[in-house]
Amino acid sequence: MTLKRQSRGDVIIVYDSTIALCRTSRDSVINNLSNMGATFDTYNRNGNTGTASISFRGYKKVILLGEGTSIMSNVVKDSIKSYLASGGNTVPTKSKLIIIGEDVGYHLDRTGSTYIDSAFARSTLGFQFMADRPGVAANGLTGVIINPGLTDSTIGTWPDVLKISFGTVFTDIQSLQVQIVCRFNERSRKDRNKFQRGSYGSRSGIC
């Protein structure tokens, strides 16, 4: 008898099954990838205190779904680091990571966080945590580069304010190795312009 290993998808969706809204996010991503004809796998990361992970090497893209303060465990973070380090030097061969969550900065770059790893946040992911929950009314993200002009349903009650770290230089959108989708509150037109110029962390999902 010959056993054939199941082929690996182009994308892996990493989620926390213990949170209902994260399962909802997983299903939403699955529906969108299916509509695009993309092949994908899923992996249950089991929250911030999980003790298991897998290798993400070989996937073209990793989509990590956060929900509230559930972002990633230290062992999953180590797998992410290995995955990013394994990519090539050209756009088609680079490892590509998308993180969706409102507390990515709070988790990785806040003084006092159990999971703080400022070197990873600032040098690899390219952001610096500035503040938590700016204190204005919550609204969904309005796309600039991705889905321009369209407001989605991403509304976080405790969004991060992030700043692009000086340790990482992004020359153009296509050269980004890491994309971070941050949940944050919509501000005034003046502040929205700051988001577009990079004075704050993100609009349209790119930090």
3D structure, described in words:
This protein has 207 residues and is an alpha/beta fold. The chain is built from five helices and seven strands, in the order E-H-E-E-H-E-H-H-E-E-E-H. Helix 1 (20-35) links the parallel strand 1 (11-15) and strand 2.
SSE layout:
Elements: E1 11-15, H1 20-35, E2 40-44, E3 61-65, H2 74-85, E4 96-101, H3 104-108, H4 118-125, E5 127-132, E6 160-164, E7 178-182, H5 189-197
Parallel strand pairs: 1-2, 1-3, 3-4, 4-7
Antiparallel strand pairs: 5-6
Rounded to the nearest angstrom, the distance between the terminal CA atoms is 50 Å
Proportion of beta-strand residues: 15-25%
Helix share, percent: 10-25%
Overall body shape: globular
* Biggest sheet record: 5 strands, parallel
Total DSSP helices: 5
> What is the total tally of β strands?
7
SSE order, one letter for each helix or strand: EHEEHEHHEEEH
What is the CA-atom radius of gyration, in angstroms?
17 Å
Class by SSE composition: alpha/beta
Going across the biggest sheet, name each strand in turn.
2-1-3-4-7
Low-confidence spans: 168-207
- Mean pLDDT, to the nearest integer, reads 77
Write a compact overview of the structure shown.
The protein has helices spanning 20-35, 74-85, 104-108, 118-125, 189-197; strands at residues 11-15, 40-44, 61-65, 96-101, 127-132, 160-164, 178-182. By secondary structure, the protein is an alpha/beta fold.
